[in-house]
């Protein structure tokens, strides 16, 4: 199944989230059944990230957006933990600091965007400035409504500088959110995740849905597509995202760079070093065996 085709938001196309089934799992029936595929995608991602880093000419930005408890942290943990920490990082967008708030809304996103060879995950992102900011009326409509074009221009600029951009909206149902809130309540290991705002934000579900639908419609572009991922089943969410990331990376034309030294010259240096090392070892053995003989004759 090509999940990129299935879940992509066509540029400019109106999105109706209530028509997308958050329980969708395609022909897969269980986690166990999907496991080998997930594993295969994770291994591919690991190989590709090694190439991305070695190649050093491009970068990858993965944007994760969702309502509370939809699984952004889970995606980060499950899908990206197998990768080499060198060259990968995650940046979480919290309420802007004083310094961040003093700049334009794209300033912090730009600062944390990946450099060449890097893979960066945004856990929430510059999209908060047309989501939470719009829903809570933190700025006027005249301000946030201009941001869609600004975001498109910003992402186009990153893209023309060699950054591939993949944006995922994790789509869960209100029921599923509530059952995850219950898990957070019942499981002491998850209590720390609870925030007061979880419940007040939940009340704003229709407003967030509207804000998400507009963002998805207005900012899904060929150079920075949005994917709406059915995410009630965590394993299916992991399967779909890992496949989309692995497929995208394998089309980036990543290559190991050629050696930047004269290989013949280095090979002959290696052989010389090997001979010298072997000489040192046999010299050491001679000395050792003489020592041993001496101490034996004394005894
Ligand atoms: P979880 O989904 O597990 O609860 P989280 O991403 O909500 O994790 P928190 O630390 O609970 O993490 O929340 C960060 C908060 O910061 C979110 O409520 C988010 O909407 C808010 N935020 C992010 N960017 C902005 C912004 N530009 N303006 C205002 N609030 C923002
Ligand atoms: Mg939260």
UniProtKB/TrEMBL annotation:
Pfam families: PPK2. Transmembrane segments: none annotated. SUPFAM superfamilies: P-loop containing nucleoside triphosphate hydrolases. Residues 40-252 form the Polyphosphate kinase-2-related domain. The keyword Secreted does not apply. One of its GO terms (molecular function) is polyphosphate kinase activity. PANTHER family: POLYPHOSPHATE:AMP PHOSPHOTRANSFERASE, POLYPHOSPHATE:AMP PHOSPHOTRANSFERASE-RELATED. This is Polyphosphate kinase 2. It comes from Methyloprofundus sedimenti. The lineage of its organism: Bacteria, Pseudomonadati, Pseudomonadota, Gammaproteobacteria, Methylococcales.
